[in-house]
């Protein structure tokens, strides 16, 4: 099961036939396992990583540190749920340390992201403070190097 998940995490476009061959298990068993993993929400989504800069699309990404006051009986969950329902929000994580929530927001411009933080995020009851960090360049995302410029330094082997 773990090996199947690792293979799908690395490359979700592998076919059932390829996965069957790689894992040495029958195709029907692999197909059934994938279907069950999807139904159980172990596999939540299949995703493609796109280098939007190369595609010519401008996207501004900000990491927002949010300090909040936990609410009685629900803790941080209620406020986190309000935050992750905004379409601008890509990710929300509960953190240990100096702040409570790590929120990743995307917009078309810095002004759009700043406006979201000041008018929507910071005004939520229970939000004590926010600190915004604008992402300047992506080097690696979800384990994938975005633009690998390291040249092959191996010596050529000649017969």
List the helices and strands and how they pair.
Layout: H1 2-10, H2 16-23, H3 27-39, E1 60-68, H4 77-84, E2 89-94, E3 101-107, H5 110-121, E4 127-134, E5 140-141, E6 144-145
Helix pairs in contact: 2-3
Low confidence ranges: none
Q: What would the CATH topology of the largest domain be?
A: Alpha-Beta Plaits
Work out the strand percent: 15-25%
| CATH superfamily descriptor of the largest domain | Lrp/AsnC effector binding domain/regulation of amino acid metabolism (RAM) domain
Classified by CATH, the class of the largest domain is Alpha Beta
| Alpha-carbon Rg, integer | 21 Å
State the separation between the terminal residues, measured CA to CA.
44 Å
User: How many domains is the backbone divided into?
Assistant: 2
Total DSSP helices: 5
Q: Features of this protein?
A:
159 residues, alpha+beta, Alpha-Beta Plaits, 2 domains, 4-stranded antiparallel sheet, two-stranded antiparallel sheet, 5 helices, 21% strand
């Amino acid at each position: 099961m773990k090996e199947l998940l690792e293979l799908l995490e690395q490359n979700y476009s592998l076919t059932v036939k390829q996965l069957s061959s790689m894992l040495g298990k029958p195709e029907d068993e692999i197909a059934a396992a994938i279907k069950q993993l999807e139904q159980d929400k172990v596999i939540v989504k299949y995703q493609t990583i796109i280098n939007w800069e190369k595609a010519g699309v401008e996207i501004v990404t900000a990491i927002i540190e949010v300090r909040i006051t936990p609410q009685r009986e629900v803790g941080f969950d209620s406020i986190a749920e309000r935050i992750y329902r905004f379409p601008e929000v890509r990710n929300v994580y509960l953190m240990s340390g100096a702040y409570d929530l790590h929120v990743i927001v995307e917009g078309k411009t810095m002004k759009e992201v700043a406006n979201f933080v000041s008018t929507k995020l910071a005004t939520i009851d229970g939000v004590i403070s926010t600190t915004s960090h604008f992402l300047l360049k992506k080097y690696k995302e979800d384990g994938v190097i975005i633009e690998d410029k390291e040249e092959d330094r191996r010596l050529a082997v000649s017969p």
